[in-house]
Amino acid sequence: MDISELKDRLAKFARNRNWEGFHTPKNLAMAITVEAAELAEIFQWMTPEESLSIANDKKAFKATQEELADILIYSIRLAGVLNIDVEKAIDEKMEINSQKYPAGRK
Ligand SMILES: [Mg+2]
Question: Checking CA distances to 71, which of 4, 42, 53, 90 falls within 20 to 30 Å?
Answer without folding.
Answer: 53
